[in-house]
Each structure stands twice: as structure tokens, then as C-alpha cells.
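Q: For a teaching session next week I want to show students how multiple molecules come together into a single three-dimensional assembly. I've collected the sequence lines for a complex. Could you give me the predicted C-alpha cells for the whole thing so I can convert them for display?
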Amino acid sequence: MKVIGFIIAVLTGGLLIYATVDFPEWADPASPASMHVSPHYIEKTMEETSVPNIVTAVLADYRGYDTMFETAVIFSAGVVCFLLLRIFLRNAPEERLYRHVLTGVTIRIKRGGRLPYSEDFKRIDTLWTPHDLIIKTISRLLIPFIQLFGLYVIAHGHHSPGGGFQGGVILGASIILLAISYDLRTALRRIREKVDAILCAAGVFIYAGTGALCLLLGFNFLDYSALASVLHVDPVTARSHGILIVEIGVGITVMATMIWIYKNLASTGKYDEGL
Amino acid sequence: MGDLIQTIIAKYNYWIYITLMMIGLYAMIAKNNLVKKIVGMGIFQTAIILFYVSIGAKRGATIPILEHGHGEQGHEISSHMVHAVDYINPLPHVLMLTAIVVAVATLGVALALAIRVYNRYNTLEEDEILEQIREK
Amino acid sequence: MIWQLDLAILTLVVICGIGAITVKDLLGAAILFGAYSFMMCLLWSIMGAVDVSFTEASVGAGVSTVFFIAAVFRTTRRTKD
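A: Of course. Below is the structure for the complete assembly, covering every listed component.
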């Protein structure tokens, strides 16, 4: 199998290298990729949408239909991971371990036994137990600032590199940091499963709902200048605000999906103990 | 000979991108372990995105964020003429943003499948899994 | 568009890619894949694609590496291949 794989890779590589002989020179301003539609995007973005970041304007306004289906793809990936892995346990796990906080003594409760609730005993995982004070303290101090930065990246996507995807991933990564530095049950208490799933769908709904709203007001689907009558501004600023609304929708979906996939992967669906 | 050197200097970056793609393709076909195949898929995807983004580069141009836009009164600046030669082509960047996010979604689904396969057959090597299927 | 930096980082990228599929430890392969993603992010910054580079830094070198490590933790770390 390795020999066949090597021959296939060499043959395909040879064909592709033979095809690059016809390519235009690298970084040529007159190459065909930069000739037809993209000068229109570069020159007309400021006067049609008043958004300086050309990539955000093209992504959310000129090619907004594409981005809506991409958001639906992310949502469906989260749903597929949930359907593949999630197990709803009927009975309690085999054994549970509890650690006495002050002395470090660990006790083990088999199935059927019960420990009365008290503040001195904390549940720990059977496979891997994080018990580091420095990591816990630093994470607890840093997570609010990471979330603030994520919100800034979403909101400032008009003027600097950024936008909905990047900000949503940073927000999701802050909750994953909480799950890694404390344990998975702390993160589960913060963001419950139902809230997570509803947020996933709410982002796609905001995006498609904005498009449908423009359709109801008499314009084309996802033509944001229709929002001028709802927001009481002129059509060009309405396009800028429409871009902000759909970016918020995309950010919500991406954040909820990253958290959902991580929870399903790290605990293989049992939501009991994890990384 | 001088012509060959000229061709190599002009096109060497495309050949390195094709080498990366072929490394990813070889890993997907020839490796036995499932996680190694998924790593090969990731290498293939990012190499294609690299090739695509390199098409949009322009010599002597700046990043695709308009300079006069910051701090102005919105859209009444039609006196500033924007030339397309000064800015890097933004269209490949837009398409590849979608591609990166779809790649991470595919990675999540592939890893979920690998965990399910491990739970069922207790191994991640492809030949051992085929053996267990054949002897049932 | 400094071509010397470009060539150096491309060499590192190819070495990381070959290393990620050759090591016999799956955790090492996951970490090398994270390093490969970060080198790609640097390449795109040199080419001027700042939005793509931002996305790859947060998605590839961040969340994608964490997914790999979570999956390796739940299955097995050794491989014969």
C-alpha cells in the first residue's frame, strides 16, 4: 500500500508541476485573478457600504449568500458530533473518586453507595486529575479579558482584521480554557447543554432572519439597504449596520459550536469526566 | 540552461506548495493509523489554501484595508480616488476564510468518527480493524 | 514580500509536515500539526492576507490542536506506524 501511495503521489505531483509552467508570474499586478471583479470591489466598497475592511464587506455583503450557508455547515457539524457521540446514561458510573480538600486523602465510592454532600470533598476524575493552583488562578484572572477581546474583535471587524469568525472562535476558546484548567463539570455548569444547542441555532436564525426581513420589506434577499426604513438611516449606513448584525449572528453560532464539539469529544458523550 | 534557471526562480514557490499537497495525499493513502490519516487531510487542506491565497499577492501593494476610511465621515469621501493597483486582491482571502472554517468543522466530525471506531474495535490501526471485521 | 523570510519559513513548514506524519507518538503528531498551522499563519502574514492569518491562528493553532489532543486522550497514544 505504501508503494502504491508513493507512486500515486509522485504522478499527481508531476502532472501538477507540468501545469504550473503556464501560470502567470507570482505577485504580478496584471494577472487574470486581479482583473475582472476585484477592482470593482476595491474601488467601490467605501462609497457603497462605508466599511474600510474590504474583506469583511465582500464576505458579509457582496458574497453574503455564501457565508450564510457556511454558517449552516458549522451548525450541522456540531449537530453531527452530538448525534455520533452523545450517550444519555441511565445508571451511575462504576466508581467515583472524591478528594478531601485540606489533607489530600482520596476516597472511592462504588456504584450504589452515596456520599452525603459536604464542602470538604471535591469530585475528581479517574483518568487525569488537574490539581494545580497556579493554572487555576491565572485562568480565572485571564478568562474575562479573553472574552472582552473576543467581543472587541467581532465589533471592530469593520476597521481592522477580524469579524464574526475570529471573534466567535476566541469566545469559544475561553470556555474551553475554563474546562481544561478547572474540570469539565465546571464548564458544564456555566454553559448548559440546552443553552448551547439553542445558541447554535439562534446564530443561523439571525442571519437568515435578516435576509428574510429585507425580503419582506420589498427588496432582494440579503439586500441590506432595505433596513434603511427600519433603522432610520440612509441606505449606505444601513448596509454597514446590516453587516454588523450578520457578523454577530455568525459569532454566536461559531462560539456555541466550538464549545459543543469540544464537550462531546473530551468526554466521549457521557458528559461526566473529561480533559 | 539559463532558461531553466529562470523558470525555477520564477516558479519555485508553486512547486513547494505542490510538494506539501503531495505529502498530505501520501499520508491519507498510505498510513495505517486513522489519526495519521486525519493529520494528512489537515495538511492537504492547508496546503491548498496556501496555494490559493498566494495567487492574490501583488508586488508593492498594501493590505486590503482602505487607509482613508478610518476617522472619516463615512462615505462622503469621493474626493479620494482609490486605485486597485495599490491594494492586494481581496477575493481569494474571502473564499479561503470559508475554507478554513469548513476544514475545522470536518476535523471535528472526523475525530468523532475515530473515537466511535476505537470504542467498537479497541484499536486505531486499519489492518487490525479489517482483520476483526473479516473474522466475524 | 521578503523572499528570504518566505523561503526560510517554507522550509520549516515542509519539515513540520513530514515530521507530523512520521513520528510514532500520536500526541507528538498533534503538537507538530499545531506548529505547522502556526507557520502557515506566519506565511500568510508575509503575503499580506491578514484576515486569513488571524483566522488560521485562532482556529488552526488553537481550537484544532485542542480537538486533536482531546481525541488522542480518549483513544490511544501509541502507534506502530
